[in-house]
């Protein structure tokens, strides 16, 4: 949400400074009130006529405030069973009958986990607060009457490169052409500039201060989420006769857009929660990865094991005495079965993975916006990738393509011109303007026109029928004013709402007919001879996704002829143009080449025909109810029997390395869906060009189905085919939600239907990305909205391969190893406790207390165990070269019930060996049983980490040595402290240094670890994993 605007520069309007007051965002439009949305009338300069109150125009993206932070964070932590369990565990130690050791044994680990969480939440809240404060503190200029602040609806001035603070109606501009451009990338994801027109009545006023002197009001529809349409009227009552103007989307300035040219004045319609941008914003859900769900499931199994072990211990006591209290004590005694450090280790591992992804020089610019699900990148089964949009004036998304259009084909029915024959088109245009003077360009009355005249009519139609505006900028040699006056080619830049439009206009320039000027009411073209051709714009009918076409009515100033030009998609233009026998066939041929086809047509109008149309059109535009329907009906009265001029073919270039990237994803077992609004033929051709579908692979076109029976029959027909790609429409996809296929291409479908891993680069990809299990945004030329909403942001589509094959695979395998080892570490000490209690008549007496319990999972073993986040089974080059390795991850083999059971058995074996070995070998030194067993346990854990590591990193060696050094140092220098805080006799340093102690500890450690080394060797020798063959 963007509810403010930066300080405008008003030096160019110094004469009006007395009429402008500078206000903060929080101090203006501060009214509030919650009522149902309804239409409104906004009066200029008459606050007493205000009909409703405005919501506060401020933003607040914080989850908590000063008072709710602590209870809110604690509630969000303890609503999960995992943390609630440890809280109850710690609280139970306040009961004397249940106390097993020092309070800090339970409260310090829990406090550490909560402290880490609170610090992280506080840092995020602080950053959010500072961003909100910075935005809400920005100031802007507000038009006032005679220097006095005005209550009610505000007239705001916004300068170039400033963000519009509220939804407004465009009243005035400083631009000479009477219009301005908007950048809407943060609203709809499109970076192409949008043309906006002020209200004609207010633009004609001498000064901006006169806006508050006239008696006028704006009638606006109720607030809604549609950013592409608006219905309203502007009425001025103090003129004779009263002025009524219709208002549409072209007269609006939506919040979160940026003024790209000039300075504008607008009147505020909607603020706060009523803004279009706010109503279109949904709170993204908190995503939990599949890996985290699997870990949670394992912790539930561990809790079940904890309860069973406690009940068994009490049962072996024959439920003597206060057995229910004994059950609780055993639950506390074996609480280490569920490791509290598991969550901390995994969260810290996710931070490391995110840091590694950001630091990868081979995918520069990659941003991790959701550090909670990096392992999800290693579990992707379906990839939904966007390709392009639909319609003539396409402004939709392009993820596989570069969004750089190249004009490839001009088809006139009997002849077609490609890139290799554009010089012929240029010669035809040159011949027209050298043989005929500019005053006599009309050739429409000829019954049989020459080829040159046909080419000329087609090129002129393309040069006129668009929404492109040439903008002149200083190039260091020529200033802007001089460049605009002389139409300097080197200073001219084309701006439009679609790259298709720019490509067409650039092509007409290359063949000799150049667009050199355009304003609200006229267009100027330059002929090959340098003559300026002037045309008056009478009406413009913008492109909409419903109509799939655009039109313009112009008057040639040299001849007075009125012509209606139109271009659009063939599916709608086929019923508008005169009968012909080549349109459908040639459109299909060009679509199969991967070209985006436009049909161009024209119709000559007499003065009487146009005047009749204009009267009906103005009346329809003034309607408040059903305006769109009435306007469309009037326009359709002109769209009959139009003369077909030509077809144009534009190609959108594929991004770099799209083909090998898609090939890699397919080989990795990832099913790829391409979402597009193109024609079926174009979509199929693009899929083949991108290697989404192989050249030899059959394509099954899923016919339109309306019910499950038809879908079942069609699906059976598809299943009978082998190695076949599927093309399915969005309507059929709603009936058939899931099809078994290696590759799918969806034509004109709704991207919200699937939630796997979408990759998109535009504003209308946001909902798909936010709802997905793992969303990837591509920073394209259509803005960063999709990138900002995504969990992971990349700069090019080709980076997706390395993001999944390398980082996704490593993150998942590392977390799987880390989680299982943390569980193993806890189960080992719990097994030792169970053996100890069994030997001493099932007494609920702790084997280790205080410092030893905390040190075991922190300074003694934390660094080696956590160093597993640096481990990898194969090099990144090998993972990219053999994407088939990724398939194993899709089956969840690194973390499964099988691997979990194996680690449980290993833990039980090692814990039993260590405890029984200590009891057998040190029977005469039983007083030192704590030091004996604990030393063997630490050494076993360090050796097990070494056994688990597959590729050594220098930090792993440092972690092993550091942990061992810390333990030895604590035995030497802290033996008395350890004995005191552990409520056990001080550790005897001289006994630990004896040869008897050393060789017996060594034997216990070897017996616990050596068989596992042997089994690992035998397994790799006779049943090696897939990656081992690549590393040998």
From TrEMBL:
Biological process according to GO: endocytosis; phospholipid translocation; retrograde vesicle-mediated transport, Golgi to endoplasmic reticulum
Binding site for Mg(2+): 386, 388, 761, 765
Record key words, sorted: ATP-binding, Magnesium, Membrane, Metal-binding, Nucleotide-binding, Translocase, Transmembrane, Transmembrane helix
Gene Ontology CC, one term: trans-Golgi network
Membrane-traversing stretches: 103-123, 293-317, 323-342, 822-842, 848-870, 900-920, 926-947, 954-978, 990-1015
Residues that bind ATP: 386-388, 501, 543, 567, 596, 676-678, 764-765
Start and end residues of each P-type ATPase C-terminal domain: 788-1024
Location of this chain's protein in the cell: Membrane
EC number: 7.6.2.1
Gene3D superfamilies in UniProt: Calcium-transporting ATPase, cytoplasmic domain N, Calcium-transporting ATPase, cytoplasmic transduction domain A, HAD superfamily/HAD-like
Protein origin, superkingdom: Eukaryota
Membrane topology: Multi-pass membrane protein
A Pfam entry, by short name: PhoLip_ATPase_N
P-type ATPase N-terminal domain: residues covered: 46-106
Active site residues per record: 386
PANTHER family reported for this sequence: PHOSPHOLIPID-TRANSPORTING ATPASE IIA-RELATED, PROBABLE PHOSPHOLIPID-TRANSPORTING ATPASE
The protein, known as: Phospholipid-transporting ATPase
Annotated source species: Zonotrichia albicollis
Gene, per the UniProt record: ATP9A
